[in-house]
Amino acid sequence: MGITVEEILTPDINRPARYLGNELGAVHKPWEEAEVRWVLTYPEIYEVGASNLGHIILYNILNCQPRQLCDRAYLPAPDLAAKLRSTQTPLFAVENRRPLTDFDIIGFSLSYELGATNILEMLDLAGIPLTWKDRAEFDISEIPLIFAGGQTATSNPEPYADFLDFVDLGDGEELLPEIGLVIEEGKAAGLSREALLLDLAQIPGVYVPQFYDMTEDGSVKPNRPDVPKRILRRVATPMPAYAIGLVPYIQTVHDRLKIEVRRGCTRGCRFCQPGMLTRPARDVEPEQVVEAIEQGMRATGYNEFSLLSLSCSDYLALPAVGMEIKNRLKDQNISLSLPSQRVDRFDENIANILGGNRQSGLTFAPEAGTQRMRDIVNKGLTNEELLRGVKTAFEQGWEKVKLYFMIGLPGETDADVLGIAETVRWLQQECRAKGRKTLKFNITVSNFTPKPHTPFQWHSVSTSEFKRKQELLKQVFGQIRGVRVNYTDVRISAMEDFVGRGDRRLSAVVRRAWELGAGMDAWMESLDRAFAAWENAIASSGLTWKYRQVENGEWNVMAGVEELQVGRLFAKRGQKAKVESSEQPANLQPANLQPSNLGQKATLREQPSNLGQKATLREQPSTLGQKATLREQPSTLGQKATLREQPSTLGQKATLREQPSTLNALDAPLPWDHIDTGIDKNWLKEDLQRALDAATVPDCSFDGCSHCGVCGIDFGHNVVIDPPQIPQFTGHFKPNTNKDQRLRVWFGKLGDMTLLGHLDLASLFERAVRRASLPIRYSGGFRANARIMIANALPLGASSSGEIVEFELTEKMPVEEFRERLVSELPIEIPVYGVEAVDLKEPAGTQLLEKAEYLIRVEAMSSVSWEEWQGWIEAIKGSKEIWWERFTKSGKKQWVNLCDRLFEFEVMEPQKPKDGEEEVAESGVVLRYVGSCLNDGTMLRPEHIIYMLDQVAQQEFRLLHVHRQRLILRN
After folding, report:
1. Contact call for residues 409 and 397 (beta carbons, < 8 A)
2. Contact 118, 127 (CB under 8 A)
3. What is the signed CA dihedral for 370, 477, 367, 319, rounded to 10 degrees?
């Protein structure tokens, strides 16, 4: 069965412009000339996928390869997915509008553990068998090769191995073109699917799961001798020029130009998987960055750009690059956003390049509330640095700052958890000024989720402990004003952990979860339903016992070591630690919390909660008024023992080597050991020991080598570029409010552009004006907006040949020049019919608008003669009253006489084909009418005409198409 894409993409689909494939920068290469045809898919809805920088870069690189073509596909929203299934229409690529099965290779970017269900959803919608076994007998001309890349696929591909023909590990800029060449040669040689995959397996960075088996001990080994035992992660140099490309016509989640300035991070945060998987760090030359931004802003028309890196502040050229661009584009109302930056490097220079009329949000990630915990995770941040950065933001005009914290980190006590609120309260107290509001904070408290290839990959926390710590924070934050706190749902965290550190057995869980409806949209709509689907999937796969290990925190191999550390803490202080009560001691009551360790670097022996006082285990995580279990506190909680009764733990240094069970657990094979990231597993063990000692490791980009094992022939070395001199700051953008000319433009909206909404059309015009370098006037005020005024919103799906938009300019220019420059930057389906200069004293078109002329195609639900149509039209024209019930925005009911809004009405005679033209049968008739069209809501819409026909003819009609012929202004 199936219908065409044009029949699928109708106005009843939510935001149908997502699927048009006609964006600025979209590449349409001739189908017949391509030897290898790719589809890069992002298993999220368009707004997320189309704004992903890696997706854009790889799309542009592949389309630069000779004899290769790359198209795109995205996860359909639920409404389109339902329509595809009901019509038996396969999922299509957006540019060529062909089924995905027409292509040779389909690549998914997997950046989130639970996103794998979306891959299955897309494969199923495309009519592609879900597993590599089910595809094994098909040639790639029948069923394309399926692969995945991205951080999640690189770190541990095993939970998804059953669904993938191969996995590309690491950076894809150089790897994907190599894969394309092998496929091109394989197709020319007529290789079978298996033979082609065997050739691909010889490329460094390509992992083919079917050539490997999971052994009884959980490790993954080759099942044939001609593939490598370990697969190398690929490393590539950032290529900012390829970031300039797609400019979506609808608003996306990152609706700006994105330029990567640094790849990799060597800070060494022990919880951070990207920081471990992207080493070494590689800076981009400042000249390349400046050139890419300047060229990209002019080519795209964006009013905002973002400099991307895992830690932008570690790009030492950031202040100079940002200031140079800020100065060059000063008069264009451009703003810069930095999604990730270190608070210890935030200074007045960075504040200047971020500030101005379009001041972006500010986000810092202290991660932990005490110095001790920040040392354990190797954050490399002191309290003085935290205060200095936040205070600089306050002094530079920010009224709100977002902070990220984590709970559940190894070695964490209740004092550390409460330290989060203590730190926020302290920052708020320190950031005060006369005549200013108190600094507000948006706080996100996430649950630590251990990730493969990190020193903390062996740690785990029980769900109940996460809930208890969240409740503890809620009690304290409830007493602090000006703070909004968001908490990650513990069920999501547990499921991420379960899948992220799983083995091949989890493929069955992922598939069953998808069958039960656990797509990403399910998490957004109903956490309870999505979580229930995953739990049922786990149970049906016989892995409930394994999930309980995660839920109960039984993967915490550090428990015994943490016990020793608690003993060492009190032994070295010479303090008496005794379990007396689970009540919270007075000195930990929220009202009395003081940042006792602020302004100093604390060690394990100097916990802020026990300095200069008699410490008891009431200060440990038993302060929520509930009985702690031995599992939650392996030291002594829940029993009447004191640390003095454990002589073996006193006065000695706790190490992993003193714990035989821990040592065995650390040496046990892991499902991802066959992925060679470059980091030595023994180094991860050693860094875990350093974490237990709260010992920090310096950043090897700026200090000595940490001996992680990455640097060498396979992965390269850190590339750190000395910062250039910072240019003199010339000031923030000041909008030019001079109004020297107003131009009125008549334009149309045809073809695919009829599926673009009104707000997206306004954005399209603004970006076109920027690209054309037209002297547009900006409004004053906090957020200066371009003075572009569309006379009236056209209904979604309606075409038009008579729309009006007005532009206010800061300087006069010839009308014809304006027209030429504007037309050169507009899509073909937004034609410009006329431009005229308007007297500046004349009211705007939005105020002069009075009427509109429409041509609408209407179909009667029963057979109707031409005479009957004419009779109904005359009856409506002769009516004095036809009442329509409407409701105001406040919900008040109103009755409107539609006859008062109708001025002309007729039925159009069918047009006969011209000589030589074939007659095309079209259903229904075309009605022309002129009705009210005022921006105060006094309008005669096409649906009103249908209602009037219903009332007169006493039968049903269907509106097939709407075309607005023209807008009519007064005088």
Report:
1. no
2. no
3. -110
Say if residues 752 and 832 touch (Cβ distance below 8 Å): no
Residue 329: per-residue pLDDT: 86
Please state the three-class secondary structure of 889-930 as a single string.
CCCCEEEEEHHHHEEEEEEECCCCCCCCCCCCCCCCEEEEEE
Backbone angles phi, psi at 425, to 5 degrees: -60, -45
Q: How many CB atoms lie within 10 A of CB 637?
A: 21
Concatenating the DSSP letter of every residue in 199-231 gives: HHTTSTTEE-GGGEEE-TTS-EEESSTTS-SSE
User: For the stretch 467-492, what's the b/e string if a residue is b when 16 or more beta carbons lie within 10 angstroms of its beta carbon?
Assistant: ebbbebbeebbeebeebebebbebbb
The more confidently predicted of residues 599 and 248 is: 248
Which tokens hold the place of 285?
Answer: 């030359």
Q: What is the pLDDT of residues 920-958, one digit of tens each?
A: 456 789 999 999 999 998 999 999 999 999 999 999 999
> Degrees (nearest 5) of the Cα angle 622, 380, 656?
60
Please count the other Cβ atoms lying within 10 Å of the Cβ belonging to residue 647.
11
Q: Give which of 248, 243, 242, 244 is closest to 23, Cα–Cα.
A: 248
Give the pLDDT confidence of 166-184 residue by residue, as tens digits.
Answer: 999 999 999 999 999 999 9
- Is the pTM here over 0.85, yes or no? yes
Cα–Cα distance measured from residue 836 to residue 182, given in angstroms and rounded to the nearest whole number:
57
Mean pLDDT lowest among 116-130, 415-429, 534-548: 534-548
Taking CA 758 as the corner, what is the angle to CA 752 and CA 762, rounded to the nearest 5 degrees? 100
